[in-house]
Amino acid sequence: MDNLDYGIIGNCRSAALISKTASIDWCCLPEFDSSSVFAKLLDDEIGGNFGIKVAPSYEIKQRYKKNTAVLITEFREGNDVFEIHDFMPRYLTSQSQYYAPPEVVRYIKHISGKPKFSVHYEPKLAYALGETKSYIKKNFIASLTKGKNFETVFLYTSFNKNAVMEGRELEVTENGYFLIAYNEKIFLPSTRKIYLELERTKVYWLNWSNKTPNYKKYNAQITRSAITLKLLTYNKSGAVLAAATTSLPETIGEVRNWDYRFCWIRDASMVIKVMVDLGHVNVARRYLQFIVDLIPEKGEKLQIMYGINKEKKLTEKTLDHLKGYKGSKPVRIGNAAYKQRQNDIYGILMDAIHAQLNIFSTNIENAEELWGITKGIAWIVSEHWQEPDKGIWEFREEDRHFTFSKVLCWVAIDRAIKVARIFRKWQKIEKWSMLEQEIKQDIMDKAWNDDVKAFTQSYGSKNLDASVLLMESYGFIPARDPKYISTVKAIEKHLSNDGLLYRYKNKDDFGLPSSSFTICTFWFINSLFKIGEEEKAQKLFDRVLSYGNHLGLFSEDIDFKSKRLLGNFPQAYSHLALIECAINFSQKATEQRILESMR
């Protein structure tokens, strides 16, 4: 497989990646950040997978059930046809509780004829660290590993268990199922019960998707991206994951391989702001409660990231026994970046808090805590905004005065003032307004470089950086301001490569990047649109959409030459920026339609 041609299924507790030939190549149970059950994605020899094998004459097609997270893979040879409906159960019970067990279900639907397939079932528990042994029992196949950790997983099926484990050919003459469960089932499954689980899960996703507005253009892409973002939310705590995977490389054969199964305050806050715009307010409410729970002491500094269960220590380790995706080592679990200081997170979080308060005003259960956080953030920014940091791209070398970080410090105070207006806290507004003006003037004086005619990556630097494109969208500078237009043009000239953008071109800790950071390209498209180059932006957007995989999913990066997807997958950052672009184009189309109807 030369591209990340995977679909994602999940239930807001964990997720699985399934190849376009229906092999489960990545799955961690019981939760997103647990050790893997299947990790062929990171080692195609020892990682383990759950594969479906058919004769080469079969035609295989894959799609999502419309407006759901149910992935359907169709196998067809003449009149012999069957489908696999892959999903992880999620639905409301009669007690109004979400049922989301740590299980993967593969519903086998007989369509016609007598199709045949065989199974390659090879779980490799605990990141394939020890030996996993499987045993055929009366009601299930139990797989377990004994090492530092004792792990088990159970496979229930309507097919002959011996034939399954031996990889013998199975004939499909009626509907059937496979159910991978982290826990042994108290009540045995049946094909009828599994079908009911499938229907209930479909209904859940259809109801959820129905809350997303319909758009005149790119409606399918917006809905699929919204579902993908929802799949990356962790229902138990309200955390939002950056991606479902670890160690998928930004460049094949290099070492930029990180674990993204955590909640970055920046990524998550951007995601929930978009979700609020789409009408999915419960995601935002749970996330803001996650933040409230993390800040027990007034004035306590935020980490840039946390574990999905609010862990504050995310020790980084390498799994040297795994060879990595396409041989790209090391495979990492944990992420040492949690220790970094990045001053931009305060502005992004304040922007998300303001976005929700703006909709619900004071009719929100944690309003007092959010006002407390607002005051705490304003104090922290006032004390530390003049200090250098690691920046949005997490440079692991010396700290700098990054322009994006400074702009987001300004955003933090600007949004704090707006929140103060909502809560009628007039005494804070005058004090914070002076600070807002001070930060803004500092940026205008020190971030602009007359030689390159642009706002640059950091104070005193000539290096360009795609993150400064967000100065407009955060309200720091108008789109038609000559300095902003000049910055967009400079970034296009120096950072664009065949329509795809570098984050930056100056060498970092690991040398010059050779792949495009997907979100930066979407930021650039948005900037072109905002400065009036709408036709150019539209063409570029359509071209970038064509680089998504067969299901319209995006990873973190796109290779400049081959246009293959690289980096962790699917990436929340990429899909939230896709939604923002698509909504802009759709709203423009709606405005034009209204104007034409008035003529």
UniProtKB/TrEMBL annotation:
Identify the stretch annotated as signal peptide in this record: none
**One MF term in GO for this entry?**
hydrolase activity, hydrolyzing O-glycosyl compounds
All residue ranges annotated as the GH15-like domain in the record: 218-529, 535-582
Trehalase-like N-terminal domain ranges (all copies): 8-131
Supply the alphabetized keyword list.
Answer: Hydrolase
Pfam families assigned: Glyco_hydro_15 (PF00723), TREH_N (PF19291)
Q: Which Gene3D superfamilies match?
A: 1.50.10.10
GO terms in the biological process aspect are: carbohydrate metabolic process
| Keyword check for Hydrolase | yes
Protein name, UniProt field: Glycoside hydrolase family 15 protein
Q: Per the UniProt entry, what species is this protein from, by scientific name? A: Muriicola soli
